[in-house]
Design brief:
By secondary structure, the protein is an all-alpha fold. Helices cover about 65% and strands about 0% of the residues. The chain is elongated.
Length: about 130
């Protein structure tokens, strides 16, 4: 088994390689697209719940469901041309782990590339 330092060196070499540099824009487009589609699906499911007196409001006094509906609509509008910007609508603490997991999976499944996330390479750091 490799040490973490060996994995870090391997990852750094991978990320500098011309092949990785060539494919990473497309990979990240797919990462953001999958992330947004998953979040839209989750939020649409939440919106379908029967909650007639919706007690949750954002700071403007707008119903949480109205706010979520607007975010979903904006994400759907942005997704075809700018998935990264659409993803920003759903970013919150901890999302980096979801994005890294998607990136790792896509790189392995589509390109047979083993990539290690920053959390795997730096277990001494807590990422949010």
């Amino acid at each position: 088994m490799s040490t973490i330092e060996e994995l870090r060196i391997q990852n750094e070499a991978l990320e500098r390689s011309p092949e990785y540099q060539r494919i990473i824009p497309e990979v990240m487009k797919e990462v953001y697209t999958q992330f947004v589609n998953e979040r839209i699906k989750q939020e649409e499911k939440w919106l379908e719940m029967d909650d007639s007196d919706d007690p949750f409001y954002d700071g403007s006094g707008e119903s949480m469901k109205v706010s979520i509906s607007k975010r979903i609509a904006e994400a759907k509008r942005l997704l075809p041309s700018n998935p990264e910007q659409a993803a920003e609508l759903f970013m919150q603490l901890g999302c980096c782990h979801t994005l890294w997991a998607l990136q790792k999976c896509i790189l392995k499944e589509k390109y047979d590339i083993t990539w290690y996330t920053p959390a795997e390479l730096h277990p001494e750091i807590k990422y949010d």
